[in-house]
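[job 4417] fold queue: 2 targets
>>> target A
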Amino acid sequence: KSAEKYSFGDLVEIIAALRAPGGCPWDIKQTHQSLKECLVEESGEVIDAIDNDDDENLCEELGDVLLQVVMHAQIAAERGSFTIDDVVQGVSEKMIRRHPHVFGNVKVSSPEESLELWKKIKEQEKSGSAK
């Protein structure tokens, strides 16, 4: 392990450097399509680590999935489509919107009620009646 401490922002900068001119030829040539298999593989490795109750491996494999997320966002940013900040903003808004029992004044009394509320809000979002 490195004595250096890295942040999420550092990871984003590292991936951008890998894909920049003069970066890594393999990383530069990747596309959303070419990375699909990597995302599936890394997700499977996360599941294996969970199944094996292996926290050390789980930490590593979650990092590999995070790498995939940041790489896809970097590819999109290079096209001017969206950035990792947009991804973080969108998922944060979704979590707040879908948890009014935590961030609003709705009351629930069980995990099942929480899940039903989540499903109801998600359905409203998909039908366009809530945003």
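>>> target B
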Amino acid sequence: MATQLEGVGASITFGTSGFTANLVDLVLPEQSREALDTTHLGTTTAKTYKPVKLKDVGEISVTWQHDPTATKLIGAVAETITISYPLETGQTTPEKLAFTGFVIGEGGEEFKVGTMLLTKMKIKVSGNITRTAAT
């Protein structure tokens, strides 16, 4: 039976700014690749396509417990960001993802009675993601 992972223990580390927060939600990117339209005037039954060579690695969404003193990253330069998976039983180091990224969206706090104030952030991944296996 496959291991059933729980998100508790996951973390995100910003290499230059040192930003840290109490994470509530972390959504990894959905990678995509565009299709190049190769249809021409001699095509007779349906449009034709071929895959482009480069993929878009996507965006990461993060939500954390609001901290008014936290560093604002919306205007910061790209930096190395590392995401650590939760440590599983028997591991000494967790699986990690490392990439260059920068913040493209920050804020979105909602003030509601009986609800913890949260802040949201969107991070654009620039380049490829390097995966380091757990040990």
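[job 4417] complete. Note on B: The mean pLDDT is 93.
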